Amino acid sequence: MAFTTLSAPASAGLFTRFLSVAAGLYQNWQLRREYRQTVHALRALSARDLADIGLSRCAIPGAAREHVYGK
Fold it and tell me: How far, in Å, CA of 23 to CA of 4, rounded?
């Protein structure tokens, strides 16, 4: 007959995994927040200011995504 026992490392592993997931969610939240702030700041610029930096209004989401996520 086989017996299994739970030890501290198993519960510590679960807690570590939970912290890892929580950290990932927090990082995603921060990146999304930075993306929204960047889009908001670019949309506040005038058409002339956007032209000076080489952007059109339709390119704002892509430029913000590239700035924040690096894609």
Answer: 31
**68 CB-near residues (< 8 Å, 6+ apart):** 31, 34, 35, 38
Rounded to two decimals, the pTM is 0.75
Dist CA 44 CA 69 (whole Å): 21
What's the mean pLDDT in 51-59? 96
Tokens of 11: 């519960």
Per-residue buried b or exposed e for 31-68, using 16+ beta carbons within 10 Å of the residue's own CB: eeeebeebbeebeeeeeeebeeeebeeeebeebbeeeb
Distance from C-alpha of 42 to C-alpha of 14, rounded to nearest angstrom: 42
CA dist list (Å): 45 to 16, 20, 53: 44, 38, 10
